[in-house]
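Appendix B. Chain record.
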Amino acid sequence: MKTVYGPEDWPGDPAGDLGRPGEFPFTRGPYPNMYTGRLWTMRQYAGFGTAQETNLRFRQLLAAGQMGLSTAFDLPTQMGYDSDHAMAAGEVGRVGVAIDTVEDIKTLFREIPLDQVSTSMTINATAAILLAMYVVAGEEQQVPRDKLTGTVQNDVLKEYIARGTYIYPAAPSLRLVADIFRFVADEGMSFNPISISGYHMREAGATAVQEVGFTIANALEYVRVAIETGLSIDSFGPRLSFFFASHNNLLEEAAKFRAARRLWARVVRERFGAGDATARMRFHTQTGGVTLQAQQPLNNVVRVTVQALAAVLGGTQSLHTNGYDEALSLPTAESATLALRTQQILGFESGISGVVDPLAGSYYVEALTDSIEEGARELVSMVDELGGAAKAIEQGFFQEAIARSAYEIQKAQESGERVVVGVNRYVDDSPPLSIQVPDFTALEGEQRARLAEVKQRRDGAAVSVAVKKVRDAARGSDPLMPAIIDAVRARSTLGEISDTLRDVWGVYRPA
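Structure tokens predicted for this chain:
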């Protein structure tokens, strides 16, 4: 990095090299008018305890002006275990909402019309089951499938790389991903069947360049798998979505988003001949959870504001802003509301929504954009040489690279080279926040009781028949989503469906 940038650092022609917003390669934004016509979607991530409690938080956020919902699920739900399973003990409802059957999903969205609010679901290994539950909940709200809007994360590759909530080996997991692509396309749903996530890799220690390069390498793997199943690129490509982190380096992060959009547009056209609708990258951004500090937690309000500003300057389509207390606990209602107000102040008071891509033409920003794109493209090529993302994961390529970056970041912080205010500089003795912790033992007991009640009321024979159809589909080559939806409709549990697939496919064991 230099201290001054000028024409020699970016000798491009703003008129010819940058293009206009809404035009290939979309450096300046995926749409011509961007926020001048409509602000980004303010989509706060929420979920804890039981469906009843999370429903209350959802309705509070919507009343406060939130535009869309984003659902956090607890670890048992992410890993395919019911709340009454021994593996779930002590984890029910702790890091997200516990979901066992479609009855929980119906409670989660009680008094929330599913044809009027879009919902993002951060779920991966069990994504097909949660999407099926959402579809059935829509049916029982009298909302047809083509009126449901939202996103299911469904990005299993980054689970093997950086997050760990995988269940099945890569091949059947990728089959499930492609099956969701086909289902959403066939049903004409306004639903994104995947959110290809760089966020979790960045949280694990990836650099900005690695976040872009590794995310696009994973996206190319999903595209290849879908095409191999017989789908055409532009039948599912327009509904691909992405998910990035936004960290503290304001201009680097804004440039990163511009570089990611441009690299995706170029690569997906070069390799697959994709049309503009597929090449137009759309992404959600979350401010950096790993950047939040337990010390002097109110400083996190400032960090989140800077990160949110970077995301907006970079042209995000939706945004989650973290609560200042998230380094200590699940966010309180107060901190969640303040995080939403941060976005609203940026959108309505800062003036940045009135101009599209206001950083365009800056020597520094354009040089950064070019540099990040070049570095990310090199990483994509390295993954290609290893045989694609799935094979690169098997060889530990992503994992080792991210671990090295994380180590360097930690060393820089411990040495003081990387300043963290309130942690390694400007430290004081301010008292810690007083955090009220929910009674998770009681929550777990309540959830298990609700699950037992559903099991007692349902038709056991119908469940057995439905689960057998899931098993038969998993053993063969038929689409899985119709069978999973029938099982969900019969009140089969998430754990029963997951166990059926585990029996057929086995589980992934990292080398």
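Further analysis of this model is presented in Appendix C.
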